[in-house]
Every structure is written in C-alpha cells, then in structure tokens.
Predict the structure.
Amino acid sequence: MPPPDTIAAVKGFRDVLPDESRRWRALEEAAERVFTCYGFGEIRLPVVERTELFARSLGETTDIVEKEMYSFADRDETGLTLRPEATAGVVRAYLESGLAQSDPSARLYYRGPMFRRERPQRGRYRQFYQIGAEVLGRDDPLADAELLVMLDRYLAGVGARATRLELNSVGDRVCRPVYRERLREFGRAHLAGLCPDCHRRLERNPLRMLDCKVESCQEIMARAPVAADSLCEGCRAHLAQVRTLLEQERVAYAMNPRLVRGLDYYCRTAFEVVAGGLGAQNAVGGGGRYDGLVAALGGPDVAGVGFALGLERLAMVAPEVEAEAPGPTALILPLDAQAVGPALALATRLRDGGLAVGLEPAGRSLKALLRIADRRHARLAVILGEEELRARRATVRDLVQHQDRRQVLPLDAGGPELVRALQAMIGGGQ
Ligand code: AMP
C-alpha cells in the first residue's frame, strides 16, 4: 500500500514498470523486424487530433464517439481529442503529407498510446497501447492476405500462445445495405428481448447488435442472419481469394460469420485475433478493410486494410517474451571509501565499452555484497578492497559458474582491454 498522503494515478491509467516495459520493448522490436520485411515503414503520429477527425472516420454512432472519447476545447476553442485509435490519424497524415499522391500504395505501421473512457478491468484500460499496420491504396485480396500472413508470423515469432485468427466478410457498399436491412428486420421481430442499447443500434447501426456484450442479446443474435448469405459477387470472390492465399501460406484461421468490427468504416475483410485465458477481454487484436475511409476524410477513393494489436493483452498471451530480466554482466563492489573513486572509474570504462555494469556503495562486508550480487543476478562480482587497490588488480568472481575460481582484472588497463578481459572470463567459463 502506498503511504496515505500520496497522489494516485488516474483510474484506468497505469504505470508500466521495467519488468513489463522490457517485454513490451521485445514485442515492439519484433514488430519492427517482421513488419520491415513486409515493406512497412514506421509513422509516428500525434496523440491529439481534431475531434471531427474521429467523428467523421469512426462514425457518430459508434460507442467510441458516443461515449468514450477524451475530448476538450483548446484555449482557442478548437475541439480536440486524445486519439482513441490510430487509423484515422494515419489516413489524415497520408493525405496531409501528400503520400496519397507520391506513394498511393503506402505501408505504414505505428505504435503508441490510445485513449478510451471505457470501464476499466483486467486487460481494459483508459490509456492502452497498440501496435498497428495499415496498407493504403490496395483493394486487391493479395494485400489482405499478405497482411494476415505478416500478422500470423509476428504472433508465432513472439510466442503468442493459443491465439486464433477469426475471419469474416462484412460486405461492401453494394451488399452491406441489404444485410443491414435484413438485420433490422430480424431485430424488430425480436425487439422485446434486446437491451436498450440494441434498440438504439437497431435503427442507427444494426451490425453493432452482433457485437453486443449483453448475454440475452447474444443469445438472440446467435440466430440472426449472417453477412455471408448477403454478400454480392465481388465480395464473395474477394473473400474466396483471401482464403485461398491464407491456406496456401498455411495461416490457420476460423470463419466466424458473426464477427463484425465496432467501427463503421470496415468493409469486406474483417478479422480478429482472440485468445483463451484472457477472460471477457479476449481480443488481442483486430482489423480489416476500410475502402471508404480515405474518401470519407476528403481524399481520393483509395482503399485500405490494416490491424491493431493491444500491447497489454499481447504481453499476457506471449509470456515467454523477455520473461527474465537480464542481470548486469558485472557488479562492482568497492569494500571501503578509498575504493569508491576507482570503482566508478572502472565501471565507466566498462560501460563506455557497452557492458551492463552495476555499482554498489561502499561500507558493507564482502559477504553482504556478494549476497547482493547474487540477488541482482550478476554474472561476475568485481571486488575492490585495500589489497586490490595496492596491487592495482581487482578480484573477479564468477557467480554463476566456477564459483571457486578467482581471476584478476588489471585496474590500469585501457577500456577495450578491460572489456575484452571480462568477456573472456564469461566466455571461458561457459
Ligand atoms: P480496436 O481498435 O477496438 O479494434 O482494438 C484493437 C485491440 O486493441 C484490441 O483487440 C485490444 O487488444 C486493444 N484494446 C482496445 N481497447 C482497449 C482497452 N480499453 N484496453 C486495453 N486494450 C484495448
């Protein structure tokens, strides 16, 4: 428990401490490695955008825009919002930077915090982090398939256990209105059993009824018509080709005819990565095709497809990623006050050479210091006492192997020589 007088973080906002952030970094670095192989470049976006960007891109009837955005008026009254997701920002940047003209088929990935005022629970926060990728300017099924192969390889690469890719097509501007009408008819026939939110969704955005978390609604919607039965010829062919390509690349997936994405602009391919063991918040990521979005934001009629993964949830399903904190290569232990200066000089030279080196304060017994070195998982203990200073040679003990073997490190050697000597001790002990 923190002391009573401290100031707590805001509800739904949390700190990411080194044990967790080390794992996040590994997930981010893996994303960079894999996504780069698929031709993606990183885009760093602002956290704040104009409110109208989200109102226009996500649609006024989505939960996010209706009740989850952190919006405020700037001092000059401009309506601003902390981004709840990044696709809208990517498209804005794509148009604003001129990429839409110079490189219409752009591949961009991003990572960073998103903000939604949802009810916090395990795996759901008000500030959370996403890694996402967007392909703009491609309406062919190959683009969807490539993106999904990349996602599959990334998840496998980070050891994301027991995740499943679910796939669906939600139709396009030709056939989606037909499906929407069929859902509306179904909803009207079952009105009595649907929750008040679904009553609203029925008129404004009936696809969202499929997404409702209320159990009685889910039971009813399990019998609702599925999009697959209403797809037009173009959407059918697109889906069939995506599936053929995924099967060719041995990407495991399951069709989920009730999968819809919460956001209005999705069309055709929709997918989600779900995981067991996460409880109610079982979606690790999701995405799909959004062919109308660029035009809706004032750009040319250019297609897009992308996904976003939640880093908090990804870290939960990839437990092995960087699970162990690496201890310092060497921990320098000055035994008394005279050894402090030489200890820092030694540490600096080794750190300049790229080694992870710990440094303890003086004034404790050798036994106590060695216990600390053990707790810090140091590989080598470098002891600097009176005798060592006189001889100008530190005593080195290997704490992991050959624990009885003592070696020495000449204190007056140059940095590179010191680094080589320590590396040889580690290498030689293995
Ligand atoms: P979405 O942008 O809603 O499609 O979400 C994509 C992914 O972001 C989800 O599958 C989650 O992993 C993650 N995510 C969305 N909202 C939250 C949240 N409030 N807290 C934590 N992760 C979230």
